[in-house]
Amino acid sequence: MSPTMIAPVVVEENNRYQKGVKHLCDNGLTKVPTKYIWPEPDRPIFTKSDKLTKPKQNLKLPIIDFAELLGPNRSHVLRTIAEACETYGFFQVVNHGMGGDVSRNMIEVCKKFFELPYEERSKYMTSDMSAPVRYGTSFNQNKDNVFCWRDFLKLYAHPLPDYLPYWPSSPSDFRSLAATYATETREMFEMMVKAIMESLEIDGDDNEAAKELKEGSQMVVVNCYPPCPEPELTLGMPPHSDYGFLTLLLQDDVEGLQILYRDEWVTIDPIPGSFVINVGDHLEIFSNGRYKSVLHRVLVNSTKPRISVASLHSFPLTSVVKPSPKLIDEHNQPQYMDTDFATFLQYISTREPKWKNFLESRKIHI
Ligand code: OGA
Ligand code: NI
User: Fold this and answer.
1) Residues whose beta carbon lies within 6 Å of some atom of ligand 1
2) Ligand nearest to the CA of 225
3) Cβ 328 vs Cβ 288: under 8 Å
4) Ligand 1 atom closest to 225 (CA)
5) Which distant-in-sequence residues (6+ apart) come within 8 Å of 120 by Cβ?
6) What is the C-alpha to C-alpha distance for residues 182 and 219, in angstroms, rounded to an integer?
7) What is the C-alpha separation between 52 and 350, in angstroms, rounded?
8) pLDDT by residue (tens digit) across 64-98?
9) Residue 89 and residue 79: Cα distance in Å, rounded?
10) CA nearest 353: which of 264, 261, 225, 237?
11) Domain annotation for the chain: domains and CATH numbers
């Protein structure tokens, strides 16, 4: 067969996957298409015997009660945060100040968005990484060889008035509910930065980085993981670290998030109403390696759709990311090169976005 005869079929196949997993599933599916089948070592369950001998282990992450931060237990809570960031790169937060209705409304309206006809959702499909709104599928759908079982909606969120007019106008209450959500997560982030700075023994108020973060970038990423007929063959998200300073993750009640802990993938138990907070690459650099930006991935399941909302916070796009000068002295040399944010973003747009290659490349090997 000549290439000209194959091409239309290939193009049609690719188009089918470019429209995303939700679209694929809405048309009925009993098997995972080859495009989504991960090489065996990357799959969630390696072998049958693994499955039989290893009991299912969920990890109970340290739980931070944010209300306690404001009381007499503050120093104890700060130590728990520091230990969590050093050991797991992750912790969960309860009593974080966001009303239950704000987070529930956000999950509900996001569900409704992904239930809109494909034609409505696809209005926001673009490969332009700097677009204020970007709807898409997989991790990097223009680069990924194997696709992930995930569709997403990414919203730039700061400064909000600059971006809000571009956010989806349907469902009709999407903008107002998502705007409230973005604003309240930002407030939570600011409190978190204060606590993190203090846990690193850097004064929270008189600190250049804290000031920059106050005006920093925010992106809200809504992830949609439809039920998958063969969840053992694919991943919702591949192993990755988050590039920013902190990620504040809201999940519905369906589990799926796993983190790499002592070389094993462990599932995080969702706690209703809580947030999962994780250290991003920028915080690992800023803390000069003390806090860890840990690899995590997402599994899918055969029965329940899952929605998560990640709010990624970092420095302004014009900033240089570097170890805090307050953590550097003659005994503590910088472990990472100074890196401007734009270089990070460029890397993200061009890579096969897995593992922690970029952060590794910024390490100074003495
Ligand atoms: C992310 C992420 C985890 C999840 O959006 O970067 O890791 O559970 N999400 O969806
Ligand atoms: Ni992530």
Assistant:
1) 221, 223, 237, 242, 249, 251, 256-257, 296, 298, 308, 310
2) 1
3) yes
4) 10
5) 170
6) 9
7) 40
8) 999 999 899 999 999 999 999 999 999 999 999 99
9) 14
10) 237
11) 61-360 (2.60.120.330)
